[in-house]
Amino acid sequence: MSKRNIDWEDEFDFEEKKSDNKEILRFIGRLLSNWYWFVLCGFFGLLLAFIYLRYTTPTYKIYAKLLVSDDKKGGMLGGESALADLSGLMGAKSSVDNEVEIIKTADLMREMVLAEKAYLSFHKVGAVHNVPVLTTPYQIDLLSDVDSIGKSTSLNIIPIKGGTLELSNRDTSFQTQQDMAFFVPDVGMLKITLVDSTFSQENNYGFTLVPVRKAVTGLRNAFSADVTNKLVSTIDLTLESKLPKRGEQLLNTFIEKYVELNLHDKNVIADSTLAFINARLKTITDELAGVEDRISGYKKRNQLADISQQGRVLIESSADFTQKLAEVETQLAAVDAVASYLKDTQHPRVVPSAVIPQDVGFNALIQRYNELVLQRERLLLANTEDNPLVQNITSQIARVRQDMIANVASTRRQLVLAKQSQQELANSVSSQITQVPTIERGYIDLARLQQIKQAQYIFLQEKWEETAIGRTANVSNSKVIDSPKAETIPFSPKRKLIYALGLVLGLSFPLAVFYLRDLLNVRIQSVDDIESRNSLPILGMIAHSEEQEQVVVSKTSRSPIAEQFRAMRTNLEFVISGGKRILFTSSMSGEGKSYVALNLAVSLALLDKKVLLMELDLRKPSVTAKLGLPAGKGFSHYIVKNELQPDEIIMPSGVHELVDLIQAGAIPPNPAELLIHPRAAELMEALSARYDYILMDAPPVGMVTDAQLLSRYADCCLYLVRQGYTYKEQLRIPNDLVASNKIKPIQLIINDIKAKGGYYSNYGYGYGYGYGYGGYDDSKTKRKWWQLSSSRNKS
Asked: How many other β-carbons are positioned within 10 Å of the β-carbon of residue 784?
């Protein structure tokens, strides 16, 4: 046995001493005693993290940045904010926020999916899992409609000789020929073409088809558009992809589709204006041709070759008035056309612009109205008409329409007054022309009508050219300022984080096991378990021993466990204060009463004291068997047979010349009655006169009442508590006995202490000595090397 210097005075100082770091030191000591489990579990945690990283496809982030025209935020592309005057419950919002909502719509993502065939992906067949790839030696053509894909289908392509291909997955396997159409259930018609025979023949490839809606949903979940800086009109686009190049392609196409949609909105206004001008030009052209035909026929009928000077002067004067009148009528026609566009209040549509060039304010209203109508249509792509933002814009459209209607009415009244004024002047000139011959006057009327139609035609032709030129100059209000680029380092999985998580989980596993073992353990494991449930003093502590000998105390023994019995002997002298009869009991069998009684008897005998050990467990005696002595007459014989004398039942114990033994004798049917027999009291008095100490080994008090009956003869009761064996709830038994004055006084002895992991790990012993078995339980179980160390022990 190894020996250590022990301060026994400190060890058996039973006054309550609290240490702030006691729990921490005990916890650290326990961890250190099981260090190999933490190393092993930590290694397995790192190994699992390595396997996870080895077979997990990394995910990359692709970034791009757009600049949206927004005067309020310093946009560079020009143009007034479509929501500049928006107010109400939702507060002011910029066009940047609206563009973000448009970018997030599923319809825009669907356009990108169809353009890039994102519903089709390729992979390289692996031994553990399939690895996604950007290109393969095969081209997959979907001959059916894309919406015919009903469910996700994945097929591996295995080339066979002669251009035959084997397509297989977990559920099916079939063969087909290259460049030949074949049908796949829930997918449609497909055709596979070998486009590159230079690929490695050692690898097999496959493809996966998913429904378009599922592809759109997946990409929308991997896509984000955010305004990270509210002070500028930029939008940050992010897409997560397992293939960086493929992700860049998808994001580029997505931006192109968004720009096309943006340009389409601007072209709607120009196309509407051009359609209106074309319709008016066709009508004016027909009317002008008819007037010219009438003039030509008039001249032929009346044989007009030249008009007099007076007629020319009148015509010139009349022409001035008629030209102005034509302009007024043209403007009236344009105003009436605009009014017709504003009649539909349920379905707003864009209004042709630049039809009344002299009215700058009205043209500004038209531009404002068209912008709001287009913005409402764009918001409806991602929202419903019940959305507060859509309702707010609808209310603005209604207000602008009212302003335009009022402006149209005011403008029309002014034009009508101007027309009447011009008509009056024209009538005045016409009255002068009445002096001209009737034929010439008829010619003047036709010429005036021709000038009106010709002025209208020239005006509309100019506006058509201006609108057409403006349409070709249309540009998107969004500009790519940072093209899509993939990160060089994968976004997921994070290698350092996974390794750290694997290490933490590995180290946490033994901690969790320790916690669960302690949580589910109902037996005493530490001195804290005793202190928290007990108010009785602790007389001594006996460490665990792997030795098989029952008696570990001798004259020459200097082992720590022998010193513990000597320390307990010293403390016992202060407790009994001249008494000599000591009772040993416990809560249940197997807690080491006989073992402690034997060694304490030898320890007392070493002081040249005569010691008697009485085996009073009449139900299950064990001292005689532990000492290897033959069964003879004992206590039960003495009580039953009146002729027997004390000397006839006293025998040498064999462990020390000053230690005698009284066996239990024959097991009686009524042990409780024998213990309180008058001869028992006489025997105790006689023995007290002959011996310095009498040690009584009693049955467990938690099972029978024998110990309570024997307590009348005892000066002190030593109550055995065994680490890892005694139940925590059983500590109430000795406390209840003292509280009810059934047994008093009681001193606790903690038995079978297994100290691991430092001073504070259990009871304050840094060595592992004690006895191997004792009490009523002769079994012995050693902890294997692979078992988690704990404070639970068996004797």
From this structure: 6
CA-based nearest residue to 574, from 6, 16, 9, 18: 9
| SS3 of residue 624 by DSSP | helix
C-alpha dihedral, 78 to 80 to 81 to 82, nearest 10°: -120
Task: Identify which of 585, 588, 539 has the alpha carbon closest to the alpha carbon of residue 720.
Answer: 585
What ranges in 343-479 are assigned the alpha helix state H? 360-379, 388-433, 438-472
The tokens for 739 are 């509280």
Question: Which tens digits make up the pLDDT trace of 602-648?
Answer: 999 999 999 999 999 998 898 988 888 998 899 999 999 999 999 99
Q: What is the predicted pLDDT for the residue at 691?
A: 94
Are 79 and 71 contacting, i.e. CB atoms less than 8 angstroms apart? Answer: yes
Helices (H), 304-387: 309-342, 360-379
Helix (H) or strand (E) holding 697: strand 693-697
Q: Answer whether 48's CB lies under 8 Å from 56's CB.
A: no
Tens of pLDDT, residue by residue over 46-86, are 999 999 988 888 999 999 999 987 655 544 443 333 333 33
Give the pLDDT confidence of 719-742 residue by residue, as tens digits: 999 998 998 888 899 999 998 888
3-state helix, strand, coil in the chain (%, to 5): 50, 15, 35
Domain boundaries, the chain: 16-56+503-519, 60-259, 271-476, 522-753
* Count of C-beta atoms within a 10 Å radius of residue 344: 10
Q: pTM of this prediction?
A: 0.56
For 522-753, CATH gives 3.40.50.300
